[in-house]
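This follows on from our talk about sequence and fold. I would like you to pick a protein and set down its sequence and fold. Go ahead and set the record down below:
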Amino acid sequence: MTRRAVVLLSGGLDSTTCLAMAKAAGFEPVCLCVSYGQRHAVEIERARAVAQAFGVADFRVVTLGLRAIGGSALTADLEVPKDRPEGEMSHGIPSTYVPARNTLMLALALGLAEVVGAQDLYIGVNAVDYSGYPDCRPEFIRGFEQLAGLATRAGVEGGKFTVRAPLSGMSKADIIRAGMALGVDYGMTHSCYDPSPEGLACRRCDSCQLRAKGFREAGVADPTRYV
């Protein structure tokens, strides 16, 4: 019997690799994309295209109005950091951190998992090239698993949820190599925090720099469409 897994799919490089890994592990993926008011909303279109390319039968979009909260360069009128040196990226929490974003997204994925009878949740967080986000750390993932067991009917009735973060200890180059081995077309994905109106990557934000560095180190041609 095929097991279902809820995959948080943003249309980015990491979440697309997670989708490929979920399928390779034998799961039937139910993909959840969250439109939270992010300035790089083009990723939602990419998520839909990625899901179609992978033959996902159940793809859902949930809308959250996180612009009402703000507090991030991705959800408020704040400048997206550009041209930061690598050393600076690895220290401190940047203004592109969205307060409680991964907590909220995993909560939605958890609710969907209960509805569709899935016990596995996939999220593409990364603790190596993670740009200082606290909700990308393994400690956060383990903490959320404990919460899932306490906060759900399935958990109270003896079910156990597993949050799978297979990219957590991998560098961006490692992730790209793994995805290429699984046939991922990274030309379909989007990572830029501050794209042009046409959806072209800026090349200068933290996400663009980490992505480009990953392709260089993996020895793979970068398929990203830049401004």
Observations:
- The chain has a mean pLDDT of 93.
- The chain has eight helices and five strands.
